[in-house]
Structures are given as structure tokens and as C-alpha cells.
Amino acid sequence: MQKRFPWHLLFALTSQRLGWSPQTIWAATPKEIVMALFLPIAREPKMNRKDFDLLCEAFPDLKVPHGHRVIGATSVPAKQTELERERERHG
């Protein structure tokens, strides 16, 4: 006599442990299910204040002069809008 596959366990594990919907479970391959269930989930520790400050020092915010805009990694003069031209004309 052939043993039946424990579908109820598969659904319980994937829906409860992984939060998968039935559609996701049925669409997944057996290999994807095994990998999702048994590979450890890498959890990076949250960044502390010291590491954040070091990151800010290494990559400071780009200082953008008034009237400029950022394109890529540089700032360039922004085109004057009609409203800005009116303000300059009428003070």
C-alpha cells in the first residue's frame, strides 16, 4: 500500500511558517518549497547610531545651491519657472 503525501502538513507549514497563500503554494516547485522551509533566513542586525554616523560621514549629502537641481550625482542650475520670472520682474 502506497503512503499518501501529507498535503495538510505542507499547507500548514507553508501558510503558517512562510505566510504563503494557497495560490503561492500550488505555484511553487518542490525545490522552492524545500528551500523556503529549510534554508536559514539571513537577518541583518539593525544599524546602530554609531554605524549610521559613520555611513553619513562616508557618504555625505550633496549640497545643492539654491536654484539648482540634482541630476545624477551633480547639481545643475534649474530652469527658471514662469512664476519665478514673474517674481523677479515684480520684486
Describe the structure using short key phrases.
91 residues; mainly alpha; 2 strands; 9% strand; elongated
Write structural notes for this entry.
The chain is mainly alpha-helical. The chain folds into two domains: 32 residues, no CATH class; 42 residues, no CATH class. The chain is built from five helices and two strands; from the N terminus they run ααααββα. Strands 1-2 form a two-stranded antiparallel sheet. The chain is elongated and about 90 Å long.
Question: What gap, in angstroms, lies between the N and C termini?
Answer: 93 Å
Rg (CA only): 28 Å
Poorly predicted tracts of residues: none
Number of strands: 2
N-to-C SSE series?
HHHHEEH
Helix content range: 40-55%
Helix/sheet category? mainly alpha
**Which sheet architecture does the biggest sheet show?**
2 strands, antiparallel
The proportion of strand residues reads 5-15%
The largest sheet has its strands arranged as 1-2
Instruction: State the helix count.
Output: 5
Topology record:
Elements: H1 7-17, H2 22-27, H3 30-38, H4 49-58, E1 68-71, E2 74-77, H5 82-90
Antiparallel strand pairs: 1-2
Question: Gist?
Answer:
This protein has 91 residues and is mainly alpha-helical.
